[in-house]
Predict the structure.
Amino acid sequence: MANISARPLDTSIEAPGSSRRTSDIGTILSNAMIITRREMRDSFRDWRIIVPIIILTFFFPFLAQFTAATFSNYLEGFGAQIVGTRTIPFLLMIVGFFPISISLVIALETFVGEKERRSLEPLLSTPLTNTELYVGKTLAAMLPPLIASYGGMAVYIASLVFGNLEWRPNLLLVLQIVLITTVQALVMVTGAVVVSSQTTSTRAANLLASFIILPMALLIQGESAIMFLAPDADSPNGIGALWAIIVGMMIVVVLLLRVGNSIFNREELLGRTIDELNFRNIARRLWLSLVGVDNKGTVAKNPIDWYARGVGGSIRRLGLALPITIGVFVFAFVAGIVVGLLPDWQLNLPRGLPLDSVGSGIGSYTGLLFGEQNPVFAIAWQNGRILLAALILSTFSFGIAGLILTPAVYLVLGYLVTQVIAAGYNAGFMVPAILTHGIVEIPVIVLAVAASLRLGAVVTRLPAGMTLGAGWTQAFGDTAKIVIGVIIPGLILAAILESYVTPLVVTLFLGG
Amino acid sequence: MIEAHDLSKFYDDFLAVEGVNMHVPSGEVLALLGPNGAGKTTTVRMLTSILAPSAGWARIAGYDVVNEPEKVRANVGVLTEQHGLYERMRAIEYLDFFGRIYRLSADVRKKRSYDLMERFGLTFALNKKLGEYSKGMKQKLALVRAMLHDPPVLLLDEPTSAMDPQSAKQVRDAIEELQRDERTFLITTHNLTEAEQLANSIAIIRRGRIIASGTFDELAIRFAGEIVIELRARGQLNGFSADLARTFDGRLQVQESGENWLHYRISEPTETINPSVIRHAVAQGVEVVSLAPLSRTLEDIYLQVVKEDEAQGGVDGEHLR
């Protein structure tokens, strides 16, 4: 009978790679590849995966080549060779895209399928880190379709180069198509991981996958339009647009990778999973996050307590979002100044106008801009709706939208300062014109944007020990408290100052 | 060794496990019993560093489950509630895959796989696809996987469920063998006979809380009343019953007696009092044929524990904080 105990007890087992730093990329990849190899072997044993890959790699490119050649010849008869010519790279993109669309299926299968079959827990009980599991499974979902995609494109290009068409590809465009295909695969797989981690069945995952497929379909249409309208190196705008798409998608990939890595953890995967929406419970949790002064939802004793512990704590939890927002605003202002100094961008304002005449008329400028009826409401609403738009868009863009929308005004301000100075005026009057109400308005805007940034970005870096739901609920509660406690009263106060005090101060400054 | 102090897990207002304390020394088996949804799996998952405790701490083989998760997982073998095998793989590939994860060398992977498969009578199925395995074979293979890296601590969830009696005995023998080699076990099971047979200590968990724990005898005394021992002798006992009651006054009570037998109640563990009783009987010329507790099963104790807990207002199902 074999001995089942192979080792004296006094030695404990070292975790794989534990003698090295856990961030050692070599160790992570080496451990991740154990998972990747198994998953790939498993995928290649499934005819439902292997048959489409073979067809799309070895047969579809010839069909595409046949279509390209037929289309080209047909259009040549009408003198529209250019359409035929531009169909060739477009079909290259399609040949590359079809196999990578399988990566979405594999990713959903590898993550949520394994969860559904309950084979994930033994894997989670091993010493592999969350990152190693995540990288291993992501690579496993990506590599087979990507290899098929590169193979298919190679077959297609070869058939065109060595076939009757004797096509000579534009290497830059081919490189762009290869890169686009790669980042598209990355976007789909990293998106699928996020979807999978929040579902318990492949059915639910497939339904949610439409959030990945639909934007991707729109993107492909956009890319196709660009390739038909301006596909070659001679059209810098077309080439630039494709590069912009590649860079944009890379940013999305990085953000999705961060989200995936932060929610692909044992706690999220095996924690209490809820598929049904309990609106009462959701409403209760959101309400507690609003009226509570801590993570446990302890309700504030009174409004002062709510301000001191609730709102105060929420502002403190903004953390890095606050300096990032301030940095972006300062950068926008400086960028405005730099742009204003460029000769091509000069406004050439009329020189030598008497500023005191401006001062005498400035009292009514708020009325001109926002209507005579209620300038306070108009100003507050104007600022409020921009911040509201920034908040809503930030929620769905990892916080980026807020950082793009709101600093624009500081860019314009920096630009205008240079124009005023360039025209020979004393720009000093802009200081009271901005700071009188800006002393309230600017911090309020900074807080609002920082809160939007945190609300959108919280999914990319969850607070320690928090699940996705708990982390997001906390960020939502913090944002709501800041909005109600600081931003709304701040915007109203700033609007009052801007309506009634700023004109007086500026008039005094200009001697009106 | 397994240590846990005040180990708790909450999900918002749902209490999964609260205030679990345990100390399982090397070479011992703790059986964690309880109804479905009582918190057994959550406890095991916390001890495997899969779920982070909401409060309290636990150490496995000397490693902290929160701060040293990879080391904890390297030192435990886990048999999960669902065997979770990859059905398209062959057994040998499956074990090789897990062996690689545990960084076992190729030789060790191969040797351990063959030895363990032989131990559990699965050598014939080494090259079979796991989809073709029977339920019991899958369970045994999952157990082989848990033992592959020869961990000092094994956490086994229902180790013999779905097994035929012969396979179940193989598994129990393996556990006893490893126990002799100082491996530590935590077993969750609904098979109370098996728990009684294997466990050095027992903990009963209900609604996330340990409601009773101790050795079988301790639990028996606490929940099934004092232990009743039956002494059978060759020949008549004559006045031995009265003599025994007099000699061990306060430590045992003679309940009833017959011509060649007597029943006595004890209020302390059998291992402390029975040797003295036997010595006394021999000194009095009584030829003892057998001395054994009257049958009280773990099932009796378990049902009594649950009954008492219910009497205090506890019901199974969703437990809120």
User: Anything to note?
Assistant: Chain B touches chain A through 57 residues (CB under 8 Å).
